Amino acid sequence: MADQIPLYPVRSAAAAAHRKRAAYYSAAGPGSGAEWPSSRYQLEDESAHLDEMPLMMSEEGFENDESDYHTLPRARTARRRRGLERFVCGGWKLLCTSCCDWLVNICQRKRELKARTVWLGCPEKCEEKHPRNSIKNQKYNIFTFIPGVLYEQFKFFLNLYFLVVSCSQFVPALKIGYLYTYWAPLGFVLAVTIMREAIDEFRRFQRDKEVNSQLYSKLTVRESKNSIGHGISEDVRKSSGLFYCGPLAPRGSGGSQSWQKRPLHSASSCFIRTDQLDGETDWKLKVAVSCTQRLPALGDLFSISAYVYAQKPQLDIHSFEGTFTREDSDPPIHESLSIENTLWANTIVASGTVIGVVIYTGKETRSVMNTSNPKNKVGLLDLELNQLTKALFVALVALSVVMVTLQGFVGPWYRSLFRFLLLFSYIIPISLRVNLDMGKAAYGWMIMKDESIPGTVVRTSTIPEELGRLVYLLTDKTGTLTQNEMVFKRLHLGTVSYGADTMDEIQGHLRNPCPQMQSQAGGNNASSTPPRKAQSSAPKVRKSVSSRVHEAVKAIALCHNVSPVYESRAGVGGEAEYAEADQDFSDGNRTYQAASPDEVALVQWTESVGLTLVSRDLGSVQLRTPSGQIQTYCILQMFPFTSESKRMGVIVRDESTAEITFYMKGADVAMSSIVQYNDWLEEECGNMAREGLRTLVVAKRALTEEQYQDFESRYSQAKLSIHDRALKVAAVVESLERQMELLCLTGVEDRLQADVRPTLELLRNAGIKIWMLTGDKLETATCIAKSSHLVSRTQDIHIFRPVTNRGEAHLELNAFRRKHDCALVISGDSLEVCLKYYEHELAELACQCPAVVCCRCSPTQKARIAKLLQHHTGKRTCAVGDGGNDVSMIQAADCGIGIEGKEGRQASLAADFSVTQFRHIGRLLMVHGRSSYKRSAALGQFVMHRGLIISTMQAVFSSVFYFASVPLYQGFLMVGYATIYTMFPVFSLVLDQDVKPETAMLYPELYKDLTKGRSLSFKTFLVWVLISIYQGGILMYGALLLFESEFVHVLAISFTALILTELLMVALTIRTWHWLMAVAEVLSLGCYVASLAFLNEYFDVAFITTVTFVWKVSAITMVSCLPLYVLKYLKRKLSPPSYTKLTS
């Protein structure tokens, strides 16, 4: 039926537009050729007609002829307030927001960030004032600590309510009891909170002090002396040996690990680690300013007239633009500075020594500017309890009004009203907050002590219950679902493909010298300057497979940023003794360091087939052939990989033949338009992607000396530009990227994490929808989704076609709407367009899919998707990631889980929960999340029951005694009731469990019930209210009926029966007994019995030792509890809960 319903309103214009768009889609299909551009432009010209055609999200809407696009807001929330409510609420919100912004701007005037010029060794020439070079992560100071903590506490309704109630006891006319009965619980809560905040603040102070007090070696005009620096958070540029640009390295930075490995590089470079800044654990090479390397001594840095011009402080840690100028030379030397010359704050010098100049300090450093305060996450359970608390407050006011009304409004009735509000204030128990916070701490301790998930850390102890309410799980791919361990799997040359079982054939080709290479070498030996023009104009001949293998492997071995690192010999200490002659260059002593594991995998593969990278520095690279011959190549230019270009390149000169070659490798989407025409690249890329392999296209271009010199002059000029440097440099490099010779296609496998498939299946059976958000390309993401069983092999997949404007998005969403029960795969670019115009519609459709894969996603888009799900569905979301690019998503989700992986610990440190493996998430959610939610729900409702029952007894007491506003229990009885008499048994509910952990893992469907919120709802709350009213009435009326002469006997009978009733109700609530629960019950009862001897002020000791007292208390307690036990037994027999069927 759905296929027969038109997608648009039935109008003539709409029908015509529909036919035109159908023509567009037929033209957009494969093989449309030249028809594609014209059809596309035709659609864009007619996109204005879409204003008259709404995007229909339900089939009923197709019959509505009055629909109009303008009636559908872009987000289409349809929840805007109207009329007076909108005016009042919106105006008040706008007024408050404006006032707050004005106060913030007045109190925190931000200094405008500007570019700066820093003179070398001449600080007096710097006219600008810069921030102090210190960091401060403290939330308060000595003056704002107490006010700040109190504000954070009393901005919640529950605490503010008790503050008002406690303060009212200072008014004599309103005083109804001892002050400590109100101030003691409130003071305890505040003391615990202030102590916890003080400890956290002191730890932050200690960390700041440690960082800001690190020692540096400061280079001065006279001598090098030790001085105390203001902090490691200095952003500077650096140079190993004589002059760098980067942050100054602290003395002994990096610890023992920094000096265990020594890179084979010259003194003009060093390695750093940036895992604390961007989450990447691989070493990165930093290069010195070349003109300072020619100075004979360190002291000569002060004898030259030079300065650094740097751009204004920015957030981007992956780019920098500046220039180094030396004025005392003729002509002046200008050298461009880029990211490879910089070392930011919070990075560690892994090898080498750094002499640097400070450029950015304090608040202007990259690390501080990129530090954002994550939002305070509040659990859904806390929000639900807050709503119930407000409902209790309404009941409190209503009950007080009824009492005053029945009293007849005699005398100062408003005073009686306020006294009744105070008498019934225990309806809202202050111990609720204390018990829940202590319960959360207990859950966190249980999670970290679980031996089945070792290494799990709870970093946010306020939301463990969120783990039991999740509906959407947003996960990264690389390093989260996969191991981020790359293994070379395939080499494709166009006509021949080599896999893991045919790598020996490649080794055979490399052992046999290539005939073409031999002839070139022989010719070049005779003439040291071969004719370049003849080479470029020579006719093309079909190369043999052997020569193509030689060229492909050589290109892979040269085009990378990998550096071989050798272990230092034990006994070698100091720079002078560290010579190449003393190095152990054996294969077993060599490891590789690079910015990407893909790069290392490629170089390790070339080593396995015989071509080994043995040495590399800034200007050269050495390869060892299978025969043992060393080939040396001079590195003329390096073009690093960027997310925008999606490719990297290198220009090298073979020192034996003087040939200049430009090698490049990158993603197929970037390289397909650069390489020469071929008929196999696109197909083979798709084939490898379907196998789950990460593909790279490798190409080369031979350059003449004249071509290279022309390029170098233009490239150097572009790098010196201050404005639009990146665009100018890219334009120059692109002039070389034309008609490159396609050499090969490589495939690298990223292995899945252990037990990923069963874990995803477990989560899916638990009713959790899993979305994979990755920066990888569409084909690889789709393949990993299938191989990990995120999408079953029998399930249909809808690949969202690329869209660039609203019209295309409109058509594609309508096409997707007609699909049913299929997984969605969408790219980041298309996602951005759809979120811009059809945010609500996209969310509505995507949420109906069993699985969603978003590829080519930026970190900002990942966070935006998490917020979109929260806003659109109102369900709880969880984000899982392992790298620095996942931090924003983790902080935006309701619950963030970080995995300690190869990309560093940044995601783990920013997350609410940290695990070591993805498979641990299953137990974390199914067992601990489920238990935490059900326990907190039971604990919260029981604490409210404890307050409701005593308030009911107070209401019965006041109504019997002519509506007098006199307290039933006073002083220590009220304090003891909420603490030593019932606290331990009630809190022991955090040990309760309905099913064993093994059963919860075996039947994940049990988790699905939690998302409906049935453990804590207005229905269950109403049941507890009725129980409280029944028991409170029985206890009070029973005591009034059974007492004989003294009123003090009423207090003794009712209070004792109340304590026994609460202990029995705890036992009734418990589903699985723990030995600590029994100890708590016995201990509390013993404390009460022992304290009776000291309560002469409240009880008649002679009466409570009689048999009459015992049987009256027993009778009342039996009547209050026995019916509930009977009802519970009948309910379990007639309508047992789902978990009892599994445990029986």
TrEMBL record:
<dbReference type="Pfam" id="PF00702">
    <property type="entry name" value="Hydrolase"/>
</dbReference>
<dbReference type="InterPro" id="IPR032630">
    <property type="entry name" value="P_typ_ATPase_c"/>
</dbReference>
<dbReference type="InterPro" id="IPR018303">
    <property type="entry name" value="ATPase_P-typ_P_site"/>
</dbReference>
<keyword id="KW-0445">Lipid transport</keyword>
<dbReference type="InterPro" id="IPR032631">
    <property type="entry name" value="P-type_ATPase_N"/>
</dbReference>
<keyword id="KW-0813">Transport</keyword>
<dbReference type="Pfam" id="PF16209">
    <property type="entry name" value="PhoLip_ATPase_N"/>
</dbReference>
<feature type="domain" description="P-type ATPase C-terminal">
    <location>
        <begin position="909"/>
        <end position="1136"/>
    </location>
</feature>
<dbReference type="InterPro" id="IPR008250">
    <property type="entry name" value="ATPase_P-typ_transduc_dom_A_sf"/>
</dbReference>
<dbReference type="InterPro" id="IPR036412">
    <property type="entry name" value="HAD-like_sf"/>
</dbReference>
<comment type="similarity">
    <text>Belongs to the cation transport ATPase (P-type) (TC 3.A.3) family. Type IV subfamily.</text>
</comment>
<keyword id="KW-1133">Transmembrane helix</keyword>
<keyword id="KW-0472">Membrane</keyword>
<dbReference type="InterPro" id="IPR023214">
    <property type="entry name" value="HAD_sf"/>
</dbReference>
<keyword id="KW-0812">Transmembrane</keyword>
<dbReference type="InterPro" id="IPR023299">
    <property type="entry name" value="ATPase_P-typ_cyto_dom_N"/>
</dbReference>
<protein>
    <recommendedName>
        <fullName>Phospholipid-transporting ATPase</fullName>
        <ecNumber>7.6.2.1</ecNumber>
    </recommendedName>
</protein>
<feature type="transmembrane region" description="Helical">
    <location>
        <begin position="1075"/>
        <end position="1095"/>
    </location>
</feature>
<feature type="transmembrane region" description="Helical">
    <location>
        <begin position="971"/>
        <end position="991"/>
    </location>
</feature>
<feature type="transmembrane region" description="Helical">
    <location>
        <begin position="416"/>
        <end position="436"/>
    </location>
</feature>
<feature type="transmembrane region" description="Helical">
    <location>
        <begin position="943"/>
        <end position="965"/>
    </location>
</feature>
<keyword id="KW-1278">Translocase</keyword>
<feature type="compositionally biased region" description="Polar residues">
    <location>
        <begin position="515"/>
        <end position="538"/>
    </location>
</feature>
<keyword id="KW-0460">Magnesium</keyword>
<feature type="transmembrane region" description="Helical">
    <location>
        <begin position="1021"/>
        <end position="1041"/>
    </location>
</feature>
<keyword id="KW-0547">Nucleotide-binding</keyword>
<dbReference type="Pfam" id="PF16212">
    <property type="entry name" value="PhoLip_ATPase_C"/>
</dbReference>
<dbReference type="InterPro" id="IPR001757">
    <property type="entry name" value="P_typ_ATPase"/>
</dbReference>
<feature type="region of interest" description="Disordered">
    <location>
        <begin position="507"/>
        <end position="545"/>
    </location>
</feature>
<dbReference type="InterPro" id="IPR023298">
    <property type="entry name" value="ATPase_P-typ_TM_dom_sf"/>
</dbReference>
<keyword id="KW-0479">Metal-binding</keyword>
<feature type="transmembrane region" description="Helical">
    <location>
        <begin position="391"/>
        <end position="410"/>
    </location>
</feature>
<dbReference type="InterPro" id="IPR044492">
    <property type="entry name" value="P_typ_ATPase_HD_dom"/>
</dbReference>
<feature type="domain" description="P-type ATPase N-terminal">
    <location>
        <begin position="127"/>
        <end position="183"/>
    </location>
</feature>
<feature type="transmembrane region" description="Helical">
    <location>
        <begin position="1047"/>
        <end position="1068"/>
    </location>
</feature>
<feature type="transmembrane region" description="Helical">
    <location>
        <begin position="1101"/>
        <end position="1127"/>
    </location>
</feature>
<keyword id="KW-0333">Golgi apparatus</keyword>
<dbReference type="InterPro" id="IPR006539">
    <property type="entry name" value="P-type_ATPase_IV"/>
</dbReference>
<keyword id="KW-0067">ATP-binding</keyword>
<feature type="transmembrane region" description="Helical">
    <location>
        <begin position="180"/>
        <end position="199"/>
    </location>
</feature>
